[in-house]
Amino acid sequence: MSLAQDITILKKIPMFSDFQDDQLRLLAFSAESMDYGKGQRLFDQDERADGGLVITDGLVSLATRGEDGFEEVDQVGSGTLLGESALLVETKRPCRAEAIEPVRIIRIRRALFKRMISEYPELAQRLFDQRAARFRTTIGRLKPIGDKMAELEQLNAERRAKDDV
Length: 165
What we know:
The protein is α+β, with helices and mostly antiparallel strands. The protein has four helices and ten strands; from the N terminus they run H-H-E-E-E-E-E-E-E-E-E-E-H-H. Strands 1-10-4-7 form a four-stranded antiparallel β-sheet.
């Protein structure tokens, strides 16, 4: 895949959508391109994550470990960033990723990404703002669940009080 094609794919990733073309070019040029054959594992659940993987071609199965082995939870393809958090902080992979068909990825190591955002502080600020907005959205979506749980707890407490009488 050409550098121009890699830049086009990176530009579609929400985390990189605010990057300028020269910044995307630097990221694409400095990252590694890797190929995986059908059935090859990109990474395993609970493995140390040293960065993110952008799928540029192919289809990947994501599976989590259960009582009876691994169970597929999703399939992702071109334009997907796996390991967004791993670009910023030390973490472990939350699932197993395996190629369903031949797959090509761009591997962006955390050290490279951190170096980029230190050289372009405006990127760091935009990334911070993006993540803060996502956290606010998540909190907003969880609030009704918290309210319902508090309501259920109140009903349960009232039921226990009646049972004690």
